[in-house]
Amino acid sequence: VLFALARMEEITPDALWKSFATDLAGFMTGSMASPEGAFHSAFDADSEGEEGKYYVWTAGEIDDLLGPQTGAVFR
After folding, report:
1. What is the domain count for the chain?
2. What is the pTM of this model?
3. Are residues 33 and 48 in the same domain?
């Protein structure tokens, strides 16, 4: 993805692509880099002692955020 963003920045005049590439590179080197110099492939989904708790939304939370009609698309 980083390569594609950098390439888009090369071939289009839109500075947004450079911003996306810079942000992704910062995320990769800041959050995904291991102390040994490699990169992690994912975050651990455990939070508050429960697998995926932070990443899982209830139907009510989705409806509250998006409204019931749009929320139905994601249920």
Report:
1. 2
2. 0.59
3. no
